[in-house]
Design a protein that fits this description.
alpha/beta; Alpha-Beta Plaits; Fe-only Hydrogenase (Larger Subunit), Chain L, domain 3; 3 domains; four-stranded parallel beta sheet; about 40% helix; globular
C-alpha cells in the first residue's frame, strides 16, 4: 500500500467526510481543518498552521466533489456539503487544483550546476547548435533566451554537471494540458486535458485532486436504491486480501451486489476480435484497441485522424454496466476504478452512473470500521475468464483478442505502454501515414504497466501485476467459458 504523506492526508479527509455523512454531521464539517490542525499543533508541512488549515479546507472541497477553482474562501465547508447533497449529477470536469497547496515550481529549464569543472574540452559549448552556452568565470552558463531545452549538453557533459529542472505535473502531462497561470500556480486546460491523471500522480504536493463522487454514491445507497459495485480487474492485489473479501466488504458498506468488470472484459475481447477480423479482411492496415478511456479522450481531442483506426468496441465498464441495467433498469451502476479518465467516460456512457476510485474505496472501509480481512468470501454470480481478468496489465487486452480470434493467421500485436510525448508523437505519425510499422493491432495503455498502475491505485504496480497474474492464471480460458454457455 502507498504510505506517502499525501495519500494519508487525502484518505484522512475522505474518511472524515464519509463519517460526517453517515452520522448526519455534515453541518459540522467546517470544523475539519481545525480538528486536523488544532491550536498549538505541530505544523509538519507548511510555514504556519493557518496555511495548513487553508489547504485542508480546499482538499475537503475536492472531497465533496466540487471545483476548488470556484472556492470564494467565504463559503463554509458545511455549505459546500449541502451543495454536494443537492446536486443531481457530478460536475463535468474530473480534476481540480488546490492552489494553496501548489508550490509554484520554478520554470522547467536546463541548468548548469556547481559540479561544472570548466573543463578544457568544453563539449557542451561545441555541441549546442543554438549558441546558448558560454564560459563565464571558468564555468559554463546557459542563456535561457537561446536555450531550446534539447538536452544535448546534458548528454555530453563528462561530469553530469548539467541537469534539467522539471515541473513534475507539466513534465508528466502527455498533451501539455497543465501549465502555470499568471499567479504562477498550476492550471489545467480542460479543452486539452484527457483526464489521464498523470499530473495528479506526479505532483509531490498533491495539489491536483480528483473531484470525488463518494457523497453522490452514499446518497443513492441511503435512499434505498439498488446500488451495484463493478470491480475493475485492477482491484485485485490493491489490498492484502482476496477480491472476494473486497466484494463482501462492499456489501457491508451497503452495496446491493458486486460484479467483476472482467465479465464485461470478456464481451469486449470477443467483440473486438470480430471487429479486428473484419477490418483485416477488408484490407485495413491496423486497428487500435478502445478500452483505455484516456486514450479515447486523446483521439477525440488531439488525434482525430486516428479515429478510423480505433476499434468501435465499447469498454469493459460499459458492457458490465449494461448487464447491471438488464437485470434491473433502475439499479445504480458504480465502477470501482484505478483510473481518473473513467469519470469522464461515465458522462458519455448510457449505463454507468458513478465512479468510485480504489483510493476512495479504501477510505470507505476505514470510515465504516470494516476489517476486510475478516470478511467472508463473496461469491460472484457470473464467472470471468483468465483473459478478462488480465485486461488490467499491459499486453492483456491484445492477448485476449488473440485468444478470442482462435488462431486468426495474421495477428501482429504491439503495445503503447504509457502515454507520453513520444508515444503521442508515434500515434500521430501512424495515423498520418495510415500504417503502424510495429504491428497490425495496437493496444494503448495510458498508464505504464496498465491499469494496475492507475493514478488512484493503493499498491505498487509490481505487486499488483503479480497478484492479477496469479488470479487470472487460476481462471478458465475465455473460449472454454464460451463453450460452457
Amino acid at each position: 500500500m502507498d504510505n506517502s504523506n499525501t495519500t494519508h492526508l487525502k484518505r484522512e479527509i475522505l474518511v472524515r467526510i464519509i463519517r460526517a455523512f453517515l452520522n448526519d454531521e455534515l453541518k459540522d464539517l467546517t470544523k475539519l481543518p481545525f480538528e486536523m490542525r488544532p491550536k498549538n499543533a505541530e505544523v509538519p508541512y507548511r510555514c504556519c498552521i493557518y496555511k495548513e488549515r487553508a489547504i485542508l479546507r480546499q482538499r475537503a472541497v475536492a472531497g465533496l466533489g466540487l471545483a476548488v477553482e470556484n472556492d470564494d474562501e467565504m463559503t463554509s465547508l458545511a455549505e459546500y456539503a449541502q451543495q454536494a447533497l443537492k446536486r443531481e449529477k457530478p460536475e463535468d470536469t474530473m480534476l481540480t487544483v488546490v492552489e494553496t497547496a501548489c508550490k509554484g515550481c520554478v520554470p522547467s529549464r536546463v541548468y548548469v550546476t556547481e559540479l561544472c569543472q570548466g573543463c578544457v574540452a568544453r563539449p557542451c559549448v561545441s555541441t549546442c547548435k543554438f549558441g546558448a552556452i558560454q564560459i563565464k568565470d571558468g564555468k559554463s552558463v546557459i542563456d535561457g533566451d537561446k536555450c531550446k531545452n534539447c538536452g544535448m549538453c546534458m548528454q555530453v557533459c563528462p561530469y553530469s554537471a548539467i541537469v534539467r529542472l522539471k515541473v513534475p505535473c507539466e513534465d508528466a502531462c502527455p498533451v501539455n494540458a497543465i501549465a502555470k497561470n499568471e499567479q504562477g500556480h498550476a492550471e489545467i486546460d480542460f479543452d486539452k486535458c484527457i483526464s489521464c491523471g498523470a499530473c495528479e500522480r506526479a505532483c509531490p504536493f498533491a495539489a491536483v485532486h480528483e473531484k470525488s463522487q463518494v457523497i453522490d454514491i452514499l446518497q443513492k445507497i441511503k435512499s434505498g436504491k439498488k446500488v451495484v459495485a463493478m470491480l475493475a480487474p485492477a482491484v485485485v492485489g490493491q489490498l492484502p486480501v482476496s477480491v472476494n473479501k473486497i466484494a463482501q466488504a462492499l456489501i457491508q458498506c451497503g452495496f446491493s451486489d458486486v460484479m467483476e468488470v472482467a465479465v464485461g472484459a470478456d464481451i469486449t475481447a470477443r467483440t473486438e476480435a470480430e471487429d479486428y477480423k473484419e477490418r483485416m479482411e477488408r484490407g485495413d492496415e491496423f486497428m487500435t484497441t478502445s478500452c483505455c478511456a484516456a486514450y479515447n479522450e486523446l483521439v477525440d481531442k488531439h488525434i482525430p485522424e486516428l479515429k478510423p483506426f480505433r476499434s468501435e468496441t465499447r469498454t469493459p465498464m460499459h458492457y458490465t454496466a449494461e448487464l447491471v441495467k438488464k437485470q434491473d433498469p433502475d439499479a445504480v451502476a458504480v465502477f470501482i476504478s484505478p483510473c481518473v479518465a473513467k469519470r469522464k467516460e461515465t458522462q458519455h456512457d448510457e449505463y454507468t452512473d458513478y465512479v468510485m476510485s480504489i483510493e476512495e474505496m479504501g477510505a470507505l472501509f476505514v470510515a465504516m470500521n470494516i476489517e476486510v480481512a475478516n470478511c467472508d468470501d463473496f461469491e460472484f454470480a457470473q464467472e470471468a475468464s483468465k483473459e478478462g481478468r488480465f485486461f488490467s496489465v499491459t499486453g492483456g487486452v491484445a492477448e485476449s483478442v488473440k485468444v478470442a480470434l482462435k488462431d486468426f493467421p495474421e495477428f501482429y500485436p504491439t503495445c503503447v505502454n504509457g502515454l507520453n510525448t513520444k508515444s503521442v508523437r508515434d500515434l500521430k505519425n501512424w495515423a498520418k501515414k495510415g500504417v503502424c510499422p510495429e504491428g497490425n493491432i495496437v493496444e494503448v495503455m495510458a498508464c505504464e504497466g496498465g491499469c494496475v498502475a492507475g493514478p488512484v491505485c493503493l499498491n505498487n504496480k509490481r505487486i499488483t501485476t503479480k497478484k492479477v497474474t496469479e488470479y487470472a492464471n487460476a481462471s478458465k480460458c475465455i473460449n472454454d467459458l464460451e463453450e460452457q454457455k
